[in-house]
Amino acid sequence: MKKTTKNLLNFMSTRLGFVLILLVLYWIKTMWAYTIDFNLDIQGAYQVFLAIINPFPISLLLLGLALYVKRTKLFYSLAFGIYLLLFAWLVSNSIYYREFSDFVTVNTMLASSSVSAGLGEAALELFRPWDILYLIDFPILAFLFFKKYIRMDDRPFNKRASFAVTSLSAMLFSANLFLAEIDRPELLSRGFSNYYVVRALGLPAFLGYSANQTYTANRERSKASEKDLEPVTEYIQSHYAEPNPEYYGIAKGRNVIYVHLESFQQFLIDYKLQADGKEYEVTPFLNSLYHSNSTLAFSNVFNQVKAGKTSDAETMIETGLFGLNQGSFMVNYGGTNTQQAAPFILSKNGDYTSAVFHGNTGSFWNRNTAYKQWGYNYFFDASYFTKQDDTNSFQYGLNDKIMLKDSIKYLEHLQQPFYAKYITVSNHYPYTTSLIGDEIGFPLAKTKDETINGYFATANYLDSSVKALFDYLKESGLYDNSIIVLYGDHFGISQTRNPNLAPLVGKTSETWSNYDNAMMQRVPYMVVVPGMDKGKIIDTYGGQVDMLPTLEHLLGIDSKNYLQVGQDLLSSQHQQITAFRSSNNFVTPKYTSFNGRTYYTQTGEEITNPDETIKKELDEIRNAANTQLKMSDAIQTGDLIRFYKGNDLGKVNPKDYSYLNSMKALLAIEKEKGDQSTSLYSKRGNVSTVDLFNSPSYRALHPEQFQTSSSDEDSSQEDSSSSSSSSTANP
C-alpha cells in the first residue's frame, strides 16, 4: 500500500501526472453533479456510457494546453487556473440548475448584469450542504504541496508528447460526438435540448455550443432583410384565428389591469392544504374569481417560458411572441429591437395611458429599457415606493400588499382609459423570507423540501393581496369600468422538486413522470369582466403567447395585422397546439410530448410504440409547434418588425419616455387638461382614494385561528397550574 501511494505521489509530481490528476478530479465532480444536481433523464447503458466519458475530451484538451509551457511556475499556474475555470463552470451550472432546471448559456452570462440585482439571498438559498464536496480537493492538494508530498516538476514536457495529448483529446471528442449522434441524430444542428447536449457531450462542450448559438443569433439579426418578412407574414395570415363574435369588443374602451401572479401554478386553484387534521384553502379569493360568472377562466393554459422565466412571460403577454431559446429577450434584445407591444398598440387604438408597478429595482430583467421599446408611458419601480428594509421586503422587492397600497397614489392620477400592470413578487422562490410578523399563520406543508413547504403560505399571502386590490377597485369606482387580467408567469416548483411535491397532489414520487412535469406547467389565466354574466371555465388548450390576441379581441382590436404568433383563445379557429419553448415539446388535447417522452394527454399513458397513424399525427403537431417557434424566432432575432409596414402603428421612439419624476409628469398632465382630465383623482373632484386601500394581515383575517391558539395556551396554563396545586396539596 505504501509503495502504491509513493508511486502515485511520484507520478503526480510529474507534469503529465499533475494534469491527469486534475482531469480525474474534474471527472469525479462532474459525475457527482450528474448524479445529485442534474436530471439528465439518462436511459440505458449507452447513455450512461456517454455521460461517463463526456467530461474527458474537452477538459483534457484545455488542461493539456499547460503542457506546452516550459516555465515551471507558469505551467502549474496555468494548469491550476484552467482547472479552476472548469470547476467554476461546473458549480455555476449546478447552482443555476436548482432554480431554472436548465444550464447556463452564453446569453445568460451576457445578461448577468441585468438580472443579478437582488439575487444575493436567493443565490445563497440555492447552496446545499453537500456542495462542500466540490471544494474538498483544494485543501488536500494544498496540503500535499505544502508537505512536499507532491513536488513541482522543473522538466519541460516534450512538445511532441504535448501535441499527442492535444491530438488524443481531439480524437476523443470526435469519437464522443460520433457516439452522441448515434444516440440522437442531428443533436447539434436541430438543438433538441440543452439536456441532450450536456448528457451526450458534457458541460465544456455545451459552453462552446451555446457560444455558437449566441454568435449565430447575432449574425442572423445583422443579415436580416425585408425579404425575410415574406414567410413570416404568410404564416401570420394563415395562422390567424378570427374573433369570437360573442366576446369581440365586450370590453372596448375599458381600463385594463394586469395582475402578474408570481410563480403561481394552476394546481393551486381550489387546492386545500391538509395540516394538523384540518383543511386550509390556499387561495380562497382567486378561487372565487375562477368560478365567477364575470370571469373567463382558462383551465389548460401553459407557461411557455424558458431561462428568461418572468421576462419571457412578460414578452409573450405584451408582444404575442416567444422569448428566446437561450437567455432573455428583454435583456438581449429588449432595448434595441423595434417592437409593437400591447402598450403601444392600445395607445394607438383608444388613446390608452400605460404604466407598470413593480416593487423591485428597475434594471432587473432590463425592464427600464425594454419597457420604453414596448411603449410604456410610466414605470414605477422600487424607487417610487416605501423604502425597503427587513420588515417589509425581501431580495426580490417590496412585499405585495405594501407595493399595492403605495401604487394607489400613482394609479389614481393615470388618465383613463389606462393599461396598468402589477408585477407581484412575494410568491417568489425561496418562499420562506417574505412573510413576517402578523402575516405569519398559514400552515406550512410537511415535506422534506422547505421550498415546497413555504410555497402554499406565500401563495395565500398573494391571494389576500389580490383581494385587497379588488376591494380597492370596487370602493374607488374603477372596477366597473375595467377588466382585470390575472396570469401566472411560470412554475413555482421546479421539475427537480416535483417528486417531493407529488404526495401533496395525489401522486407518488416513484411514479412521477415527464407527463406530470408537463401538466405542472399549467398556469392560471383569468379575465374578469365586471358586469358580464356569461363567464365560464374554458378548457381550451393554449399558452401565454395566446394572451395578447385574446385581449385585443376582447377590446375590439383585430389582431390580424400585427406580427403575433399566438391565437385568440376564445376563437373557434384556435388550433389548441401549445408549443413549449424547447423544440419538440408540446401539448394538445390529445397528445403531450415533453423531455423526449410522448403521452396521451387525457390519461397520462406513455406512447412507446406508436402506429403509423399516430406517428403521422405527432409529426404534424410537432411541425406546427416548431414552425410557430421558428416564425417567432425569425421576428425576434432578426428584428423583423423594423421592416414591417402591414399596419399604421409606426414605430416606438424610446427617447419619448422617461421614468424619472413620473408623479410630477402625471400632475402636469392633469393640470394641463383641467376639466378634461379623465384620471380617477380628477373624476372624484380632486379627492384622493389612497385611504380606500386596506390590506389586513393574515392574523387580522383569521382571528379565530389565533384565538383558538390563545385559548389552548390559556387552558394549558390553567391545567398546569391546577396540576401544580394538586400536586402541592397532596404530596
From TrEMBL:
Subcellular location: Cell membrane
The UniProt record lists the keyword Acyltransferase: no
An annotated GO cellular component: plasma membrane
Chain segments annotated as coiled-coil in the UniProt record: none
Residue intervals passing through the bilayer: 7-28, 48-68, 75-97, 132-150, 162-180
Membrane topology of the entry: Multi-pass membrane protein
Organism annotation: Streptococcus sanguinis SK330
Annotated signal sequence range: none
Catalytic residues in the record: T310
Record: residues binding substrate: H428
Protein family membership: Belongs to the LTA synthase family.
InterPro entries assigned to the protein according to its UniProt record, in alphabetical order: Alkaline_phosphatase_core_sf, LtaS-like, OpgB/LTA_synthase_biosynth, Sulfatase_N
Chain sites annotated for binding Mn(2+): E262, T310, D489, H490
Keyword Ribosomal protein found: no
Pathway: Cell wall biogenesis; lipoteichoic acid biosynthesis
Entry keyword set: Cell membrane, Manganese, Membrane, Metal-binding, Transmembrane, Transmembrane helix
Ranges for region Disordered: 696-731
Gene3D superfamilies: 3.30.1120.170, Alkaline Phosphatase, subunit A
Protein name (database record): Sulfatase
